[in-house]
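Handout, section 4.2: multi-component inputs.
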Amino acid sequence: MTATTTQLAAPAIRRPRTVLVGTMFASGAALMAYFGVLAVYVSERAAARDAGEEWFPEGVIELGPSGWIFWTLVLAAFTVQWAVQAIRNDDRPNAYIALALTGMFGAAVFNQLWFIINDTGFALAGTQGQFLFFVMTGTYIVFLIGAVVFLALTTMRALFGQFGPSQDDGVAAAAMFWHAVSIMYWVTWIAIFVTK
Amino acid sequence: MTMTEAPPSEAAESSAAPLPAVGGLYDWLTTSDHKAIGRIWLRFGALSLLFFSVIGVLVSFERLDADAIDVFGGVNSYFQMWSLYRFGIVLMVAIPLFVGLATIIAPMQVGSTNIAFPRAALAAAWGYVLGSLITVISVLAGGGWGALDGVSGDEADAIRLTLLGTGMVMVSIILGTICIVTTVVSLRTSGMGLTKVPLFAWSMLVAGSVWVLTLPVAIANIAVLYIDLSGGAGLFVGAPNPSFDLYAQLAWILDQPAVYAAAVPVLGIAGSVIPVVAKGRQVSHEAMMILLGLAGLLAIGGWSQPFFGDERDTLVYIAFGVAAMVPVLASLGGNSATLVSGEAPVGIPPAHMIGVLGSMLLFLAATAAGALRVIDPLDLIGTTADTGVLNLVAVAAILGSLGGWWFWAPKTDGRLFSGIQGLGAMILLLLGGVLLGATDVIAGFVDTPDVLLASADDSLGDAMIVLSMIGSIVVLLGVLGALGAITLAYVKPGEAGDDPWGGHTLEWATATPPPAGNFAEPPARVRSEAPLLDETPGDEGGES
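Output:
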């Protein structure tokens, strides 16, 4: 495919970077899909409350574990930016450490979410609230896995010597998608775990 | 992704090297040439157009007298075909035709050698083909978007498959669109600031952004409904008997304001075609860009879905409904001014001119009907006026994309399509579109219900439904004429020349058919929105 890839070269001009722009639109689409589900959740909860129905039994959803996810993602936001900055400075050891740490935080978030799902004891075919809780957390896990895979691919490309001070698009794009997935959770945390 | 990684010097040296010829299935499955990828969208879109036009005629025929005529074999089958037509004509015909045209033309218009992320664009094209086939086959197997009269277990499985297919088509559209909009944002040639982007490419940036932000909301709805149908308690879809509710939860993308997004590129195609026909510059390029942006803004509709309650009597819905007419009307005015201020075509008008002007008129009619529909005392919502607006938008989009295809045929297919046959097809589509859409809107005034399961209780309503069916037949004839002319151009190809119309934008600086890499050498620095009208290229002016 070498011949093909060289034919596809962009004109010799500095424009907003292609991978970054593409990821920006993809992140926008992902956010809209996620907030589409969240909006259904919030509107159905409001309708249930207006009808005087109980959404979740008191005390089933605890703030503590979900708060840990919140702060883990805050830490991960710093580590992923650390990776971007390290690549820009051509500091590869720091970039590897930062990418590995971010991936580890992603795994920790997944683990904590799984704990929360099991801890609640909800059933998919239960009440409307329980069903939508499953849909919300399930959708979030899908996007989280997507962000971790994107990050893992970026890490592998970095390990194979790609990216550098003049070419940090891939890492910056992975970081952008990571931030989008973090935003999803932070909004969810307020909408589901704090306001219940 | 590899494209931006190649150093500029390497790019310049290799830009004229040929890509492998696209011939066998392997080539079609692995090509990274944006022209070949666009042709997948266009050809399957054309086949889908024929299929859904036939379905449209059959649905209209059964609608004449639902008690006496039974084309599909039962009330559920009728509802499945009725809803298949509506989803299909928008998601599998109108939008894909624009995506196909833009996949080929937009990179050349902005002076790029290829589309951004060509492999993702290829995956999107085949995802669209596969998703459409899954959707249609699952509906024929008893699926669809719910049922009016209860379903069996097998049919519930088929319904899940329909949801999967629809979601796949939407994801493909989003992916293909991301490639197009990224090309317009990132791969513009030297000197082409955003204000100098040709109007078709700009319209794809606007409409594409709206699709990228709106369709995911519909995918989220599909995910909720799919999970509810599969393992949930049937809270939203009435499982185990999915009802009309399932269709209603998703129908907001076929309703105003969201459905208008499917026709926004019509304004861009007209903005690219009319100045060439008039042999002059667009009267106000920047104003047209603003109007296109406004049209896109007023087509954002994820907020009006039934999950959030009935939004259709709110002030925002009414304001969106009425305001949507403004940019379309102003855009038509701008193009008319361009046409009047330039040289009027002598003799028989070219097919592409009639196509794009007709599509703008239909789009204007759709927004005007939409503006009437949101006026509460007229009580049009839930009547055939819903279908009327949808059909006006759909035929506007089809006519606009066919007009654009006729115009850009030398670049999309390497040949000219017959002008006379094209003209006949465009006129038929315009007349058919008016008959099909306007009559349903008029029938709405006498409260003819949208999902017709019995004859209308009014002679005017009955008459309009007959006229609407005649309109669907005229549309089918127009589609057959257009597809026949395209097929004939392949049987008897004529010499097209590199620039048969005297085009203004960079796609006309390429050879016919455009070679791999599009341009033999990088385009000169762009100084205006019509680079080929600028006499001497230079470095002064223009944004970078």
